[in-house]
Prior knowledge:
Elements: E1 8-10, E2 18-19, H1 20-41, H2 49-70, H3 72-94, H4 110-131, H5 133-141, H6 151-196, H7 206-243
Main location: membrane
Subcellular location: Cell membrane; Membrane
Protein name: ATP synthase subunit a
Amino acid sequence: xxxxxxxxxxxxxxxxxxxxxxxxxxxxxxxxxxxxxxxxxxxxxxxxxxxxxxxxxxxxxxxxxxxxxxxxxxxxxxxxxxxxxxxxxxxxxxxxxxxxxxxxxxxxxxxxxxxxxxxxxxxxxxxxxxxxxxxxxxxxxxxxxxxxxxxxxxxxxxxxxxxxxxxxxxxxxxxxxxxxxxxxxxxxxxxxxxxxxxxxxxxxxxxxxxxxxxxxxxxxxxxxxxxxxxxxxxxxxxxxxxxxxxx
Length: 247
């Protein structure tokens, strides 16, 4: 657990402390921005391998998330944000399986919380922009077709969901998956190492433990992509709920 709370590299003990987690995030950010800038500057009508991969990911986000959730016309307005969010979370998640980094940028609460609050601000802003403050609160907390006495119970629940539960659940879901994945990898890799150097008959079990570690490593790559997808599609859903004509 100490890996999630490393000692400061610079400015230790101050509000500006810079530690290994932030270093991992900075490395991933610089690498992704540099690679994307190079690919964009060399973009061709007939794409090369790297350009094809990036375009495939963008098309996946565009078709699977944006168009299916927000529609073709409305989706264009939010596409830059949602594509950026997907790449951002995916790259930070994958840092956990990159040798030398070995820690997801989203495995400490600051980054998941920041991304969730970004989502919160966007859907609140566009919801109020479309419906007005009062109209938006009514739109989100008073769904039509409900018996009036039920609103006494429904309005506080819906308001709590709007103001707290949505962004909190986004934060906790992403954070918990990345923390759990890192712990599982460490446990099985550490177990394999311990068995190999145990100096006993337990060495025979080490290959099985190692195979599990490799399996979990592959599973973590899948989870990293899945969590980026879930976070992004929920963001699109919340925006759609805030800006739709009906609840």
